[in-house]
Amino acid sequence: MYRALYRSFRPARFSDVVGQELAVRVLRNAVRRDRIAHAYLLAGPRGTGKTSLAKIMARAVNCLQPQDGEPCGACAVCLGSGLHTVEIDAASNRGIDEIRDLRERARYAPPEGRYRVYIVDEVHMLTQEAFNALLKLLEEPPPQLIFLLATTEPHRLPATVLSRCQRLSLLPHTEENIEQQILAIAPAAEISLDRDAAKLIARKADGSLRDALALLELCAGHGEGRVDLDTVLLATGSLDEAEIARFLDLAEKRDARAALDWLAVQESRGADLRQLAGDAIGILRRRMHEAFAGHREEEAAGRLRMLERLAALDADMRRGMESRLGWEILAAEGLPDPLGAQAAPEVPAATTPKEATQGVRPAPPAAPARQEPRMPRPASPPRAKPNPSAKPVSSEFRANFVGHVKEPRAKAMLEHAQVFDAGDSWEVRFRAPPFLAVAETPDVERDIRSALERTGGPRPIRFTLSQQGGD
Ligand SMILES: [Zn+2]
What we know:
Rossmann fold; binds zinc ion; alpha/beta; five-stranded parallel sheet; Helicase, Ruva Protein, domain 3
């Protein structure tokens, strides 16, 4: 039968548990001294080994010859079928029947071993009724009953339950810790794992050993048993640091054209843009710390501004902004300069005030263009005003038009634009100045114009900016 790696490699003894020294010491000492509490609460984030510890404890308290607090692994109970322990997953069936049943059964001695052990996973999910039943058992605990309650959200437990448990807090695993563990497990699972690959998996696992093992398994599937850095990058849709650093450099230099090309390439390779923010923030933080450490205060402050910009983008994406849109905005606008210089974007057309019109009289200077509040930058040149009586084109027209567009950057910018029919001319109205700036680079502009002409016939075409708060 197929078993997930994290199940196959559960630690069997307290001494195999890595990174939870305090909780292990408390449980092991309790077994050593035979002073076992009626209820333990194992609280900690996911993947920190709560269930593994509970299972070891259940065997240790029932072992016929415990050795220095560890289950011996050889006695009749250790080799038995584990009837002394019942696992309840409060998240899946909310536990009421089990707990009711348990009050009944608690009156009898366990079928094997000294104690009946109840492991309740995600105990905070129990119903009120089940909590009441549990509380009754905790108030007058039958002597042969032990509760091992596991939760990721201890604050959701009633105080009456909390006050009757010995609480053990499990810590998230450190990256080094996870790296060591998966490097140790890989050979036993017949996976050849590189150190660089292990490092990246550990970083992605975010403190959870279980997630790290699941990732390792996923990567091993991709790489047919061999896992190197490229396998992990490919399997997880992530990018290597040098690539991300390249994008940050382009954004810092405000090279919108190259930054957008970079994005298009990464997308076509299947990179997961949602992960990019976290990775990019990690790189910027390191650069900021390096600048502080080197007493380059001005640069450090600039890095901090860049970090703020990226953190805001990350927050926007978490709130549901489409990740591609977020990265395109960043690519088009660039990052604040780390030395505070107010360099203009390198998009050539963006620096020249220009009416992108053919035969249409230029409109008077428009209302101030919409600015990103966090981005100090030079004032935008005046733009043609949107024509208030123009009507949006039909979705068929738009689909047809976009179908004629070939330039990847043109396609990308048109996602942030609407097309209007002003009777005697077409108007392409962009949502924000950076999009318009990129659309006005010569190749992109030519492509948009020719696609629009092929769709709607020869008419003058104007590029405009939607008014603040408009569309
Ligand atoms: Zn034993």
